[in-house]
Amino acid sequence: MSDVAIRRVEQGDLSALLAIYNYYVRETPVSFDIAPRTLEQRQAWFDSFAQTGRYQCFVAVKDGEAVGWASSHRYHERAAYDTTIASSIYLSPEVCGLGLGRRLYATLFDALRHEDIHRVFGGISLPNEASVGLHLAFGFELVGTYREVGRKFGRFWDVATYMRPMAPGGGPKP
Ligand SMILES: CC(C)(COP(=O)(O)OP(=O)(O)OC[C@H]1O[C@@H](n2cnc3c(N)ncnc32)[C@H](O)[C@@H]1OP(=O)(O)O)[C@@H](O)C(=O)NCCC(=O)NCCS
């Protein structure tokens, strides 16, 4: 998809990104939110990102509209967890499987490589072959699977936890 640009998230992307997120909330178990998010709730999410530091967000832009994002977040509020982040990635359904997930994660991890980060966590509700495949391709390893920890659409779902090392001083370990 050479007609798609990757850049940092901007305020003007927020409603397009919210629509993508709420699609997965309404239609799939990918997100464990059950009620769609509002623009005000999503503003706090947007405000957590900066141009440097541990928490950053990049978007894929097609025909002037954001069609997906990859972002990094606080993993846990307690301070000793500061060097661990969580990553998140969502694409609009019509652009899945075209290499954009790979481009977004490559951009995000490149931007984070000199930050003080030691571990990256990813939680994936199962089944999600594309997300598992992408995370394995980016050096995440399976830590374990929590059985039936989420209930949505009248059934329980498993969540697999993946972890990716970052080298001391930045950069993924070889
Ligand atoms: C998961 C997601 C971000 C992956 O992005 P993508 O653009 O579809 O993936 P890419 O085309 O960049 O593929 C990158 C790698 O992921 C893996 N992958 C992608 N789709 C796959 C599939 N259907 N089955 C298995 N592996 C797959 C492959 O390893 C692939 O590398 P390759 O092309 O060299 O084989 C995207 O499909 C998506 O947004 N899905 C819906 C939302 C979601 O599940 N988000 C993650 C929540 S944990």
Describe the 3D structure.
The protein is α+β, with helices and mostly antiparallel strands and 174 residues long. It has four helices and seven strands, in the order βααβββαβαββ. The chain has one domain: 3-Layer(aba) Sandwich (Aminopeptidase), CATH 3.40.630. The protein has helices at 14-27, 39-47, 100-112, 129-137; strands spanning 4-8, 57-62, 65-74, 84-91, 119-125, 141-152, 155-165. It has a seven-stranded mixed β-sheet with strand order 1-2-3-4-5-7-6, sandwiched between helices. The site of coenzyme A (COA) has 20 residues, from strand 4, helix 3 and helix 4.
Describe the protein's topology.
Blueprint lengths: L3 E5 L5 H14 L11 H9 L9 E6 L2 E10 L9 E8 L8 H13 L6 E7 L3 H9 L3 E12 L2 E11 L9
Parallel strand pairs: 4-5
Antiparallel strand pairs: 1-2, 2-3, 3-4, 5-7, 6-7
Bound molecules: coenzyme A.
Coenzyme A binds next to strand 4, helix 3 and helix 4.
According to CATH, what is the topology? Aminopeptidase
The gyration radius over C-alpha positions equals 16 Å
Could you spell the SSE succession in H and E letters? EHHEEEHEHEE
Distinct compounds present: coenzyme A
| Helix coverage percent | 25-40%
**Name of the CATH first level:** Alpha Beta
Q: How can the largest sheet be summarized?
A: 7 strands, mixed
Task: Report, as a whole number of angstroms, the end-to-end distance.
Answer: 28 Å
Q: Which keywords apply here?
A:
single chain, 174 residues, alpha+beta, Aminopeptidase, 7-stranded mixed sheet, 4 helices, globular, binds coenzyme A
